[in-house]
UniProtKB/TrEMBL annotation:
Protein name: MTMRD protein
Listed InterPro entries: dDENN_dom, DENN_Domain_GEFs, Tripartite_DENN
GO molecular-function term, one example from the UniProt record: guanyl-nucleotide exchange factor activity
Coiled-coil residue spans: none
Naturally occurring in which organism (per UniProt): Falcunculus frontatus
Residue ranges constituting the UDENN domain according to the UniProt record: 1-76
GO biological process: regulation of Rab protein signal transduction
Cellular component terms (Gene Ontology): cytoplasmic vesicle
Superkingdom classification of source: Eukaryota
Amino acid sequence: DKEVRAIFLRLFAQLFQGYRSCLQLIRIHAEPVIHFHKAAFLGQRGLIENDFLTKVLNGMAFAGFVSERGPPFRTCDLFDELVAFEVERIKAEEGNPPKMIKHVRELAEQLFKNENPNPHIAFQKVPRPTEGSHLRVHILPFPRINEGRVQELLQEGLARSQGAPPATRGDKKCVVPAGPPVGMFLCS
């Protein structure tokens, strides 16, 4: 599923390439409002007549996208890097499917690493029950839980986790790279 997500990540990076240059910060209100200049975005890319992209930009999902990704100072992620720094690579791979597939696999690997920062911790999947297992009559009832033993295990786990470093990585906020201007992406 990471490769499918990587394909969509590339698609949206291509679709919204240069969107940051069309963001406007309006400071009339107590809280600044970020506005996306749709006409400028479509006009600079030569897509004013494109019905699909116009509907995407008018949708609620895109409004949420702008409100989340509009602030110039926030935590950056893989999408921001693609939009800002991978423009030329994505353009060069358009006519070369093997290079495109290689890039998709690299992105999928990065997505996997982002979701699993500690690869040494293995997660075992619970196997599915066999066919007809619910019909078996020899299933033993679930044993009673020993509350004292549960408390001991919890205390042991807490004692171990207090000395261990935190498993989550800290998201550092940074200035979001603007990337190239929209005019670079004239579409046919």
